[in-house]
Design a protein that fits this description.
Length: 403
């Protein structure tokens, strides 16, 4: 039975938004508490690079399997399973005895989160009125920004009071709580009993040049978002010798700023047809935001965080909304289309942490910021040469979202 697209399922959307906030906390709180981990395990920035890279490998590799799973069992069940895996792994990180165990658990956190994002994007757009799908993606991304700010700032303060282990146990427990909310508040999926994955359609989605171009553009956005959200707090602590709380507050500007552009950019997407120029403009802002951190002052760090946040809030909203709309094979394949784009982008994001930490150790932080800004610039260029950029009717969402 189809959903009535003239009504809004407030309870279901609320559960998804709360889940997204805690999802972001468990994504970014590792960056906030890592200086405390280094003190206990005698590590440096290379350890943060390793832990961050394993997380992105997990979240990247399992995007497509998550999309296939959602097509088989429905997005709701997939989101619930993913939330439970990610949250339990985050909780167990608080009991880790060495960095290797943390790296393995962060891989599992990423793997669980890979099952959450794309199915949840599909659910949010289905639970909103027809014509507001871009806004739905924007609101969902804004929830990530809010949770990220809490994870970077709040968990830096919390870890200072209760210790990094207890802080991770708390965030993991909160994640398990949101899984319970989803069980009771999100309605069951309407699944076709006769549905089977069509290998020919799967091949067409995975080889679609426009989706691959979108993923490369999002990888550009992700380069800046990854290095700033995961390294800025640690960088500020070492550069300016400020406390964990102050460094976390500055770093949290990167995700807090995205709150400004994520919902607004959703509305822009619903009304504007030329997606490639929207993405290129946000990519240019991202490149400048990463590069300005080269100056090496607190003021440049603040400007960097704000610009990167503004660009990420808009860029991810444009990219994921476009990926969802590019699907032409029916609602069962929406999650796979979004997951494929997100998977390429996130799997590629395991490189920037390793590259940044290697350059920072060998050549200094200034060189690392400039190198990553250059990488982001190179990756945003292909979107300008893409053949698909204008939607046939930007005022109207894809009819395949109606089930």
């Amino acid at each position: 039975m189809g959903l009535n697209k003239n009504t809004i399922n407030h309870a279901a959307i609320t559960s998804l938004i709360l889940g997204r906030i805690v999802y972001a906390i468990n994504w970014l709180n590792m960056a906030a508490v890592f200086s405390l981990i280094t003190s206990e395990f005698q590590q440096d920035v290379s350890g943060l690079g390793l832990v961050t890279a394993t997380f992105y490998i997990g979240i990247g590799v399992f995007q497509v399997p998550g999309g296939i799973l959602a097509a088989k069992i429905g997005p709701r069940q997939t989101v619930i399973y993913g939330t439970m895996i990610a949250s339990l792994s985050a909780l167990l990180t608080g009991f880790a005895g060495n960095l290797a165990q943390i790296a393995v658990l962060r891989f599992l956190v990423g793997a669980g989160m890979a099952l959450v994002f794309a199915p949840a994007v599909v659910l949010v757009t289905r639970f909103l009125r027809k014509g507001s799908e871009g806004l739905g993606v924007g609101i969902y991304n804004a929830a990530f920004s809010l949770g990220g700010a809490i994870g970077l700032l709040g968990w830096a303060v919390l870890a200072g009071g209760v210790g990094w282990r207890n802080s991770l146990i708390i965030s993991g427990s909160l994640g398990l709580g949101t899984a319970v909310l989803l069980v009771f508040l999100a309605p069951n999926d309407s699944l076709r009993s006769d549905f089977k994955i069509d290998p020919s359609r799967l091949k067409l989605i995975l080889s679609d040049k426009w989706l691959i171009t979108l993923s490369i553009a999002l990888l550009s956005i992700g380069v800046g978002t990854t290095v700033v959200s995961n390294f800025m707090a640690y960088y500020i602590e070492n550069m300016s010798h400020v406390g964990v709380g102050e460094a976390g507050a500055i770093a949290s500007l990167a995700v807090a700023s995205a709150l400004v552009t994520a919902p607004f950019s959703g509305r822009v997407y619903d009304r504007v047809g030329d997606v490639k120029w929207l993405l290129f403009a946000t990519g240019a802002v991202m490149v400048f935001g990463v590069g300005i951190a080269f100056i090496g002052t607190l003021y440049s760090a603040i400007i960097s965080c704000v610009l990167v946040g503004l660009a990420s809030g808009a860029g991810f909203t444009f990219g994921f909304a476009a990926a969802r709309e590019a699907n032409i094979f029916g609602p069962e394949y929406e999650t796979l289309a979004v997951g494929w784009v997100n998977g390429i982008a996130l799997f590629g994001d395991f490189v920037p942490p390793l590259l940044f930490s290697y350059i920072a150790i060998g050549f200094g932080y200034g060189s690392a910021w400039l190198a990553l800004a250059l990488l982001a610039f190179v990756l945003i260029l292909p979107i300008l040469f893409s053949k698909t950029s204008t939607r046939q009717n930007p005022q109207q969402s894809s009819t395949f979202s109606q089930i």
